[in-house]
Write a structure and sequence with these properties.
elongated; 7 strands; two-stranded antiparallel sheet; alpha/beta; five-stranded mixed β-sheet; Host_attachment_protein
């Protein structure tokens, strides 16, 4: 059982952690942040390269004619894609939290993804779980660096 669960997410990937105590605190450094799983969003990776056949945006102008704007609904597609990924993240997190007895949840994501995660959380996490939102993209940090950053800001207990 772990009191803390941590999710680090961005548009293409999410990582799931728990903070685990050490077996022999007088001999080992701890507690330790342990990575349990990750999810990938392959559509996010592909979207810059192949989803949109024509990457032009902005204005379309006929020769000698008046310019007019066009909307390819790319933003709506991007929003739906990230919202769907956020729902998958929360569904996966719900299973992890049920098995380890989480009391504190730390969500780390850039502001846009954090908004989608907040919407996806609606009613999925028990009320007694304290949620801490960190509007930073920590997706590329090592486990040790992530733990150090979160501990330095007071979100997790520091390693001893």
């Amino acid at each position: 059982m772990s009191e803390y669960s941590v999710v680090v997410a961005e548009g293409a990937r999410s990582r799931f952690f728990t903070l685990e105590p050490v077996e022999l605190p007088e001999l080992e450094s701890g507690p330790n942040l342990i990575e349990h799983d990750s999810l990938a969003n392959p559509i996010h990776k592909a979207h810059q390269q192949s989803i949109y056949a024509d990457t032009r945006g902005g204005k379309n102008r006929k020769v000698g004619g008046q310019a007019h704007g066009y909307d390819e609904h790319r933003q709506r597609f991007d929003d739906e894609m990230e919202a769907r990924f956020a729902r998958d993240i929360i569904k996966h997190l719900d299973g992890l939290m049920r098995t380890n007895g989480t009391r504190r949840l730390i969500l780390c994501a850039e502001k846009r993804m954090l908004g989608f995660l907040r919407q996806a959380l609606n009613g999925r996490i028990p009320r007694e779980v304290h949620i801490i939102e960190v509007a930073k993209d920590f997706a590329k940090l090592s486990v040790r660096d992530l733990h150090d950053r979160l501990a330095r800001n007071g979100y997790l207990p520091a390693r001893r």
